[in-house]
Amino acid sequence: MKKIILLTVFLPALFSCKTTEPLPVVPEPQEVVVQEDSVPVAEPAAEEAEVVIPEEQVATENDVMVVSEDLYNRTFDEIENLIDELTKLIRKKNFNGWKNFLSEKYIEKVGSAEYLREVSESPSLKDIVELKSLRDYFQWVVVPSRASARLDEIIFKDETHVTAYMYIDENPTILFQFELIDGEWAVTVW
Q: Is residue 37 part of a domain?
């Protein structure tokens, strides 16, 4: 499969009106799985978008878990509150505050020289900046793309892994991936 660059983190999409950077686009859901006393969980279609999402971050049929309405609503509220906090930090360009919400896995992957080099080569950044640190990523990717994020839907991979979506022109767009670590949700990658 193609290598994909997710211009994320708080969410590769809390979008600002001033951004000229393309946002990652998740294809419109095709199937909905519904069980009695459960919340529908959409399975994203597999089609190419302008900004490609890394293979490990694309939900597949095996990555979708149907949960109870109570768990969905409770988790939605928790993630929505977290995204509100993150959005405030991003708007203030508070790198250290934002970094406190990241998993070690996220910091390691997104802050790696290889990942930063890949993102720097994206069409929206190629002629503008070469990212050299997680702080650069925050400044050039997160702030422009996630300063106006809102949560519209969550999809469970399992009880401790959730993908948060915002709809843009009726298309679900990944904001963040979250992992429940020691009872707290953290921005992560998988």
A: yes
17 lies in a domain? Answer: no
Q: Please give the order of strands across the beta sheet that includes 153-158.
A: 153-158, 161-168, 171-181, 184-188
User: Structural domain tally of the chain?
Assistant: 1
Compute the 3-state secondary structure of the chain and give helix, strand, coil in percent, each to the nearest 5: 35, 25, 45
* Chain segment 20-34, per-residue pLDDT in tens: 333 344 333 333 343
Is the pLDDT at 124 greater than 50? The verdict is yes
Range of the domain at 90: 29-188
- H or E, element range at 90: helix 69-91
The CATH number of whichever domain residue 108 belongs to comes to: 3.10.450
Cα 135 to Cα 168: distance, rounded to the nearest angstrom: 27
User: Per residue in 159-186, pLDDT tens?
Assistant: 999 999 999 999 999 999 999 999 999 9
Q: Is 55 exposed, middle or buried (0-12, 13-18, 19+ CB in 10 A)?
A: exposed
